[in-house]
Amino acid sequence: MAEKGEACIRNIAEEPWQQFPAHYGGALSKALVHPDTTGSKQLDYRISTYQPMAYVERHVHKVQEQVYHVLDGEGLMEVGDEKRVVRKHDVIFLPPGVWHSIQNTGLGDLTFIVVTTPLTDD
């Protein structure tokens, strides 16, 4: 494995599942590219799997942009005042200042990629 901040190739099995703050009910993620795993300075790239009824609290980012890419399952995505069902192949772009949340309302796991940049809202 490369030193943090250097180019690297990682296998998904190398990163443990974790439940980040404000994520509940089996909302698990693997921080594949993150300051703690690769030393990235501008990018957070995660794969997440939410068990049925799992969710992340409604929240907003001041400067961060996010992209969610649903790989499997279905859930309910709240973007601003709108709630929509999201499924495999849906891609959601969230600019700064938009309140949002996602929860698994389906019968099986909801799996998606989340990309966030920059790393903090400072």
Automatic annotation (TrEMBL):
Superkingdom in the source lineage: Bacteria
Ranges for domain Cupin type-2: 48-115
Keywords: Metal-binding
InterPro entries (alphabetical): Cupin_2, GPI/OXD, RmlC-like_jellyroll, RmlC_Cupin_sf
A Gene Ontology molecular function term of the record: metal ion binding
PANTHER family membership: CUPIN TYPE-2 DOMAIN-CONTAINING PROTEIN (PTHR35848:SF6), OXALATE-BINDING PROTEIN (PTHR35848)
Name of the protein described by the UniProt record: Cupin domain-containing protein
Organism encoding this protein: Roseibium limicola
